[in-house]
Each structure stands twice: as C-alpha cells, then as structure tokens.
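Repro:
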Amino acid sequence: MSVVGITVVIISENRNPVKSLAWVTVLFLLPAVGLILYLFFGRNIRNTRKISLRFRRRLSRCKAPHTSDYTSLGLSSESLQQITLGANLTDAQLYIVNAAEVFTNGTDKFARLQEDIRAARHYINIQYYIIEDDTIGNIIGDLLIERAKAGVTVRVIYDHVGSFNVRNKLFKRLAAAGVQIHPFFEVTFPQFGTRINWRNHRKICVIDGRVGYIGGMNIADRYISGGKFALWRDTHLRVEGPVVASLQYSFAVDWHFMGKEPIAEVAECQPVANPTMYGQLVTSGPSSKWPNIAFMLHQAIGAASRRIYIQTPYFLPTDSLLKALITAALARVDVRVMLPARSDSHLLDFASASYISQCLGAGVKFYFYRPGMLHTKCIIIDDELTTVGSTNFDFRSFEHNFEANLFIYSKQFNEQILSVFRADMAESERVFAAQWRKRPIVRRAVESVVRLLAPIL
C-alpha cells in the first residue's frame, strides 16, 4: 500500500514525466529500496513558502533603492529581457553603480576577507556550504571571535550536510565566544529522510552592509593549498555598492527560515565612485515556485548570438539546458564548456562524461583543465552578460540545492572574466570527437549507467 500511495503522490505532483516514470519503475521493481530512495531523494518541496509574506515584507527593508527603469541604461535588448525575467521569477532587482573585485585563488580572496572582517564595526553575516576546522577556518574563526568580543554582531550559517565531515570543535568555540552560528537544515532523526537531499550551497558574506562576497569558494585550506590536487581553481567576487543589499536580503531570508529573529540591520550601501557593473542577485532552491537560476540560464543561452563560455566542476545538464546548448552550437554560436580533467568525484566524472559525446556531435567545444581541480561556476554570454555564484551546471544545483548567482550586466566586467577564461583555456586540453570515441567500451558503459543516476547525484 505504501508503494501505491507514493505512486499516487508522484503522479499528482505533475513532475517531469521521465523522472516520474523512473521513480514509479523503481518503486514497483524494488519496493523496499525504492521507498528508502524516495524518502531521501524523491520528495518535492517546490512552491513551499520559506517564510511568511508578513516577515518577507519586514525583511524587505534590507533592500536598497534599485533601478526599475532599465531602458535608459544603454543595455542590449537581450539583457533587458534577462533582467525582466529575474524580476518576475523572484523579485530580483537590478542595482547600478556597483564595483566588483575578482579573485581566482583562495590566497588573495581570504587575505581580502580578513581585512574586511577586521574593519567590521556593526555586523558580519557569513554563509558557507562548508567551513572547515583547518588552518584558514581557524584564522577566520579567530577574527570572528575577536569582532564578537568587540561588540560586533556576528552571524554564521553553514550547511549541515556539507559540513558533515567537519569536526565540531571550531563551531563550538565560535558559539562559546558569542558568535551566533547555526547549521542550515540540521539533519537529525526523525527529520533525516526529509532533509538529507536539500542543501544550502550558497557562499555569501556581508560586512556592515558596505561589502559583500559571493562565488564558489568555501572556507577551507584546499582553496589555498590545493588539497589533494596541485591546484584548486575557483572564482569569487568582492562587491561594493547597492547590490550588497541583495546579498543581505538573501542571508536574512535564510536566517529567518531557520527560526531566528528577523535581521534588523539595513544595508545602507552607497554608490561606488568608479562603477563597473550593474548587478542582479538571483537565488533558487527546492522550495522556489520555479527553478529560477535554471530558467535564467535557459533564457541567456537561447538569446546568445556570439558566445557561451561555461566553467563548471560537473556537467550534468537538465534535458532542456542540454538541448539549449546543442541548439546554440548548431546555430553556430561559439559554445565552450571547461571541466576539470579530474574532479573531486569519480562518480560525477563518469556522469559528466556521458553528456560530452552528444554535445561534441553538435559542435560544442570541451576543454579539460589540467593544472588541478576546476571548481569555478562561471558563465559568459556574448559581450555583456556574466554570471558568477555557487551554481554548478548540474541537476543538484538546479533542482535540489539552495543557490545564489550574481548576474552582471557590463561589457567591462564581461571582458575581464573573458580574459580569465582564456588564460584557463591556455592551460586546458581540448577534447576532439575522434579522440573521445576511442574511450574503452567498459568506460562508456559505466558512464551510461551512472548517467541514469544524474538527477539525484
């Protein structure tokens, strides 16, 4: 009866038919295993309100004045449509007169972050998927403790699943010193099965409402030392200007979602003297009405006329995004995807590889980054649009994780990130179809089997 009941639930949710059929097949062929897998990985919480409308209105004071008239900014029609989509999906507003500093290694990023933490006078809001109890984790931790003792309000969110393997010593030390530190979606019994699959993958930091950080780096030594790789390559941004208020709002929503008191601080972000970009923060998650970031990327890829350059550690696109990339390549848009030659997950390597043959046949160019682990989540569209954030180009990020990406509209910033991509491409090996077809038949079989698991990896 349990199998029949869950089958009725799956059908009534009107999901993707392929995914629904896959779950129904597993449930009837392997009832016991299927029930366990569904409880952990199959439940749907889309369109579930994270916070009430009343509290959302209270939190809206975290936002700064934004631009509602986009037509006078000199942006392309494609960018204007992209901005409108973000606003309609999740009320993502456009902020002008901002500046962004780009980091491509952990050494520079953490040095700058330490400077900003030391300069904090009012509050520090930090949110990371992983905060390791290692050298850099304790250096950042010591600074947060010092600021908390100096009367600065310090709030920290870390993902409970992401930090499963992290010792609690650092977290306990921070809490004992007055830092308000809490795990997001803490996985405990009996909620284990209802929370294990949904992870807060965002990496956001806001200091005094004047400086914000967003990107792909967690707090861990490997972003400096490379860990088990010779190099751990990632991209992170330090932003100033009114767009910082959108980072503050995102943090405030997650903070209240955990049952904490609404954040009172208003991010009074001043326009920067030398602005370089317009910014729009788009968040997405399993409780959103729509897969917001996936929709934003689908629109951007479909509207591209010159180039689509993607850097991602894992390449497991949804069917619609896969078709969008193939369609763009067949229309002679320059589509390039850069992956690590070897990632931190052999399973995901197999799954990613299963999509490459189909894309190569359409003209998509693939590059394997050789120096180390490529963990960057960055996409360049034509000459004006760039997005950097926490979202991998995979099912998990698009459908199961809470993610945040900054969509940047700026030819100057686009050219800056494009130069970074080209520098990485010089250290990468291009994959050619004739070479790719020579893979051992056993490996190709494994890739095909693992691909079946792509929606839940």
